[in-house]
Amino acid sequence: MLDCKYSSIRTHVAKQLDRELEGQEVTLAGWVGKRRDHGGLIFIDLRDRTGIVQLTFDPEIGSAFALAEAVRPEWVVEVTGTVRLRPEDAVNPHIPTGEIEVIVSQLSVLNISKTPPFEIEDGIDTDDAVRMKWRFLDIRRPEVSKILKLRSRVTAAFRNSLSDKGFIEVETPILTKSTPEGARDFIVPARQNPGKFYALPQSPQLFKQLTMIGGLERYFQIARCFRDEDLRADRQPEFTQVDLEMSFVTQDDVMNLTEDVLAEVMKVVDYDLPQPLRRITYAEAMNTYGCDRPDTRFDLLLQDISDWASTTSFKVFAQAPSNGGVVKAICAKGAGDWSRSKYDALNKKAIDAGAAGLAWMAFPTDAAGADDIVAQIKSPIAKFFTAEELEALKANTGAEAGDALFFAACERDLANEVLGIIRLELADMLEIPREGFDPLWVVDFPLFMRDEEGDRWAANHHPFTRPFDEHLGNIEKDPASVLSYSYDLILNGYEIGGGTLRIHDADLQLRVLAQLGHELEQAREEFGFLLDALSYGAPPHGGIALGLDRLIMILAGRDSIRDVIAFPKTSSGADLMTEAPSEVTLKQLKETHLRIA
Ligand code: ASP
Questions:
Q1: Which of 74, 327, 356, 482 makes an SS bond possible with 113, Cβ 3.0 to 4.6 Å?
Q2: What is the pLDDT of residues 489-508, one digit of tens each?
Q3: What is the mean pLDDT of residues 118-141?
Q4: For the chain, what is the radius of gyration of the CA atoms?
Q5: How many helices (H) and strands (E) are present in the chain, helices listed first?
Q6: Which helix (H) or strand (E) holds 498?
Q7: Nearest CA to ligand 1 atom 1
Q8: 192: CA distance to ligand 1 center in Å?
Q9: What tens digit of pLDDT does each residue of 26-52 get?
Q10: Neighbours of 189 (CB within 10 A)
C-alpha cells in the first residue's frame, strides 16, 4: 500500500513521487543515505521502505541547510519541501524517482545514528558474519529488504490460493513429541515434569494426519520445522514449510492441487508454470541423472553400456554386468581436450563418493595417429580394448572428437550415485549455462532404504507413507522391492517439496513400523496416539510439504537459504546478533532439573 494513511507524520512515501507532483509540497520521513556537497548545494538520498528520493538543500531556501550540513548517514529525518523536475543532465534512470528531486525547506532530526559498520547500500563486499551481527542494518539495504518483500508476497499467495480452495489453516504445537523425519530432534526440558522433554517438531506430519482423522479434509499451515542436522547452504536448523494434507484423494489429486497452487504462486515472479509438470519415476531419475532431485536444465545423461561392456576384452568392464553390476558412462561434449589434471580431479571426486575410481577416455580434437583409434584416445584404459570395441563404444555413446567419456563399473546404485556427482561436476567444469526454471515431479520412491550404517531398514520419506497396494505382500519378504505412493517436486536440482499418501490402517502401520525396527511395544509407546487414531475411522489421506525457504531462494536467484530468512543462523547454528545459543543460569538449570556434564 503506497499511501500514508497509517503514517500521518508524512504526506508521501518515496515511491509515490514522480513528475506528476511537480510543484507540490510534500512531507517525507526516512533514513539519510548518501550525501553529496556540490556547488553550494547539499544532496541527500532519503530512504524509506519504498525506495530512495533525492533531497536538495539550497542555502537560499528555508532554514534547513545548516542542519543538512550536520546530518550523518542513517540519521532518521523528517523533511518538508517541494517536488521539482531535475535538470535533464541530472536525471537518474536507475531509480523510479530519478526524474525529480525535493527542494527541502524544513528538516527535523527524529533520531541520530552511530556510524554503521558497513555502507547501507546494495552490492557491498562485507563479510557475512559482520552483516549477520548487524542484521537489522543489513535489512535496511534494498537488496535484502526486497527479498523479504518477495517472501511475504509468495507466502500470501500460498495462503490465498489454499484458502480459496477450501483449506483450513491450523496451527499445530511447537512443544511436542518427536516426529521422525530422519533428523535429530531439538529438545526442550519440561520444568513441570522432571526428567522429561518436549521435542520441537521436525514437521507437523502426525498432527496434520490427525486433522484428517478429525474430519477437516483439507488442512494447511505455513509451518516452522526444526531439525538438528549439520548445516549446508540450503539448510537451516529452523525452516518453513507450506504444509498441506487432504482426505479422499489419489496421488494425482495431491500433485494436481500442488501444481495449481504453485502456478498461482509463481505468478508473483511472472512465471507461467507449464502444467501438467513432467513426471519421472525415482528409478528413471536415478538411472538417467544419478540423482533423485536432478537438475534437468542440462543433459550429460548417464548411459547404460553394460551390453557393450560384457562383450569386451577389458575384464573390469566385461565382468561387472555378470556380477550383477552395470557399466555406465557419461559422454561430456567438449571435455576431450582437457589437461590430465582435470581428469584426475574427477577421479578423486569419484573415489570420495565411494567408487574404486573413475575410468575415462578423452578423444582430443587434433588426435595424432590418424588411422589408429587406440593411439588417438587419451586414456589409462584404452589400451585394453580392440579398435572395433572402441569404434562400437563411440557409436553407442555418441562420443566424437573433442568429447570425453567417464565410466563407472560396479553395482548399479553406486554407479548411479557416483556418476550423478560427476555429472554435476562436469556441468560446472564445462560451464554449461543453467538458466530459467525446469520443474518436474519424481514419483514412486522405494518405501524403505538401507540406513546409513546399512544394517537396518529406514523410511525413505517417513514411516507413515503408504506402500503400493500391489506390494503389500512384500513388506517383510522383500522390503527393497516395495514402492510407495510418493512424489517429490524438483526445481533446478533442488527438492522443493515432498509428499506421500499415508497409511490409514493401524495394522498396516504396525507392519511398516515393525519393519523399521519398532517392535510392537515400542511402536505403541512412541506412536500410540496415531495408532489409536487410525483405529477410529481414518479416511484415506495424503499431502505434501513445500520448502518455502528453498523456493524463495530459487525465485530470488540466490544460492543460500540464509539470504531469504530474516534472521538466519550460521552453519554452526549460531545467531550472531542475539548470540543464541547461550548459557543459562544455574537457577534455570535447577528449575529444569538439568546438570551440565
Ligand atoms: N512431512 C513431510 C516432510 O516434512 C512432508 C509430507 O509428507 O507431507 O518432508
A1: 74
A2: 999 999 999 999 999 999 99
A3: 96
A4: 30
A5: 17, 21
A6: strand 494-501
A7: 205
A8: 31
A9: 999 999 999 999 889 999 999 999 999
A10: 17
Question: What is residue 368's predicted lDDT score, i.e. its pLDDT?
Answer: 67
> Which is it for strands 218-226 and 168-169: parallel, antiparallel or unpaired?
parallel
Measured torsion, CA atoms of residues 141, 554, 235, 496, in degrees rounded to the nearest 10: 150
Closest CA to 216 of 248, 250, 176: 248
Distance, in Å, from the CA atom of 251 to the CA atom of 267, rounded to the nearest integer, reads 25
The one-letter amino acid code at 495 reads: E
**Rounded-to-integer distance, Cα 502 and Cα 563, Å:** 34
pLDDT score of 380 more than 80:
yes
**Beta bridge pairs of residue 119:** none
Cβ pair 105, 80 in contact under 8 A: yes
Q: Which of 461, 494, 502, 503 to mutate to test the pocket of ligand 1 (most atoms within 8 A of CB)?
A: 461
pLDDT tens string 69-100? 999 999 999 999 999 999 999 999 999 999 99
Q: 45 with 52: CB under 8 angstroms?
A: yes
Strands 326-332 and 197-199: unpaired
Task: Give the 3-state secondary structure of residue 9.
Answer: coil
Cα 205 to middle of ligand 1, angstroms: 6
Chain mean pLDDT for the chain: 95
Beta strands at 448-450 and 51-57: parallel, antiparallel or unpaired: unpaired
Which residue, among 302, 294, 295, has the nearest Cα to 414 in the 3D structure? 302
**What are the backbone dihedrals phi and psi of residue 205, each rounded to the nearest 5 degrees, phi first?**
-45, -55
Helix (H, G, I), strand (E, B) or coil at 153: helix
Q: Which three cell numbers stand for residue 139?
A: 535489512
Plot region of 172 (φ>0 → left; ψ -120 to 50 → alpha; else → beta): beta
Closest residue (by CA) to atom 9 of ligand 1?
498
Contact 487, 544 (CB under 8 A): yes
- Which residue, among 271, 258, 334, has the nearest Cα to 300 in the 3D structure? 334
Instruction: State in Å: Cα 142 to ligand 1 middle.
Output: 34
CB under 6 Å to ligand 1: residues?
Answer: 181, 203, 205, 461, 498-500, 543-545
Q: What is the pLDDT of residues 275-311, one digit of tens each?
A: 999 999 999 999 999 999 999 999 999 999 999 999 9
Residue 580's nearest CA partner among 202, 238, 239, 195 is 238
Question: What is the spatial distance between Cα 259 and Cα 544, in angstroms, rounded to a whole number?
Answer: 11
The closest-lying atom of ligand 1 relative to the alpha carbon of residue 500 is 7
Q: Which residues have C-beta within 8 Å of that of residue 206, sequence separation ≥ 6?
A: 179, 464, 527, 529, 530
